[in-house]
Design brief:
alpha/beta, 12 strands, eight-stranded parallel barrel
Length: about 425
């Protein structure tokens, strides 16, 4: 394996709102962190897309990416990911093409496919025995779904209310360790179909069974390449997109449709370990097995990781203590709460049920001193064969978050000398 430092590190940012702060604070912190990440030597700075989430301000990725690009000079900027279920190919191509024309060679368009509409549709349909069947027994979208790369991996939901009886859940895979990497048991998360449906309608979600994700990605490529043809053969041009110098990435959480779309088109893949860690190896294996040369001649994989670094393990654990309650709030149904402080966490605590609900996420965080975290990330790199790692860090205090990225960058660079 190459030395750690030869595998680039990049940043995924949600513009999180710590408790007691405002969206304006969170957005200003994003611009500051982007400037610092560029100074620390990170390769990319990606922004997530989450709507109707109390603790997240990154809801308009194209707008925020343009602001980050203008506030920095060299670092690549992009989306992790644009949720295509409520956008059209031409709108996405024009938005990111506009940014890329003004910042050529610096823009990444990360695309995520959310099957939440299909999930609601399938959950509402009774099975032959008259019960509603959530796919895979959990609230996580079925195979083929690309989750957003942070914050709200689970649908914004509450307790599932099957429409025609009690949902039947098939057995879930057990936790396992592969080449030192923990692949935890997936959580049994259920959801409120009506609540989720209301939220999807508010953002204009339209990802139904008839949607062809691969065709949508091809259309984006065609608008950028200036080769788009309407179904009747009419040539249509989108000047804001045409000729834009940008990279398209596909983000995936399972071995299904998104990973296979990336493989079929020869595009790079962003594989999700920090939200759906149990399926990361299968996702990458499916992509590599099906890969055909296209934009790339060979597969390229970036793997996400949730990280908190501090000068010592104990301090890092304290700074990361808000993560469990934060994830619990997502899976309880209201969306991510403003990120709690260590003091707030100590006062509130987590119930045994909440701990079980978030164990897969907490247990796969990389938390500790620079040396501790680098050891863990080297395991992730080796087990997945990652070409790049995408690091997301949330702490209550902005200064601690910036310092975490700084400590990691320094330690990762030093490790290149020892392999």
């Amino acid at each position: 394996m190459p030395p750690a430092g030869s595998v680039p590190l990049s940043v995924l940012d949600l513009a999180p709102l710590p408790s007691g702060s405002s969206a304006a604070d969170a957005l200003r912190n994003t611009l500051d962190l982007a400037r610092q990440a560029e100074r620390f030597g990170y390769a990319r700075y990606w922004l997530a897309e989450h709507h109707l989430t109390p603790g997240v301000a990154s809801a308009a990725p194209a707008v925020l990416i343009a602001l980050v690009a203008a506030a920095t000079e060299r670092i690549r900027v992009g989306s992790g990911a644009v949720q295509t279920g409520h956008d059209t190919a031409v709108v996405v191509a024009e938005q990111f093409g506009t940014i890329a024309h003004l910042h050529p060679g610096r823009v990444d368009l990360g695309l995520g496919r959310s099957n939440l509409g299909r999930l609601v549709d399938r959950a509402a349909k009774p099975t032959p025995n008259g019960t509603a069947q959530p796919p895979n027994g959990t609230a996580q979208p079925p195979n083929g779904t690309a989750q957003p790369l942070n914050g709200t991996a689970q649908p914004l939901n509450g307790t599932a209310q099957p429409l025609n009886g009690t949902a039947q859940s098939p057995p879930r895979p057990s936790a396992r360790v592969v080449d030192g990497l923990l692949l935890p048991e997936p959580p049994a998360v259920t959801f409120d179909v009506e609540r989720l449906g209301r939220q999807l309608r508010l953002v204009g979600f339209r990802d139904g069974p008839e949607e062809d994700y691969t065709a949508l990605v091809r259309d984006i490529q065609a608008f950028v390449g200036g080769t788009y043809r309407a179904p009747d053969g009419t040539a249509l041009s989108a000047p804001a997109a045409e000729g834009a110098d940008l990279e398209i990435w596909i983000l995936a959480a399972t071995a299904g449709g998104s990973a296979l779309t990336a493989a079929a088109l020869g595009l790079p893949l962003g594989a999700n370990y920090h939200i759906v860690p149990s399926t990361v190896l299968e996702t990458i294996a499916a992509y590599r097995a099906a890969f055909r040369p296209g934009v790339l001649n060979e597969p390229r994989v970036m793997v996400s990781a949730d990280v908190v670094v501090a000068p010592d393990d104990e301090t890092a654990r304290r700074l990361a203590s808000g993560y469990g309650p934060w994830v619990a709030s997502i899976r309880a149904g209201g969306g991510a709460i403003p990120y709690p402080s260590p003091g707030e966490v100590a006062a509130r605590g987590l119930s045994d049920a909440e701990r079980a609900l978030v164990a897969d996420r907490v247990d796969t965080q990389f938390v500790g001193s620079p040396e501790t975290v680098v050891r863990g990330l080297r395991v992730l790199r080796d087990a997945t064969g990652a070409d790049e790692l995408l690091i997301t860090t949330i702490t209550h205090d902005h200064a601690d978050r910036v310092r975490s990225y700084e400590l990691l960058a320094e330690a990762w660079s030093r490790s290149s000398a020892v392999g």
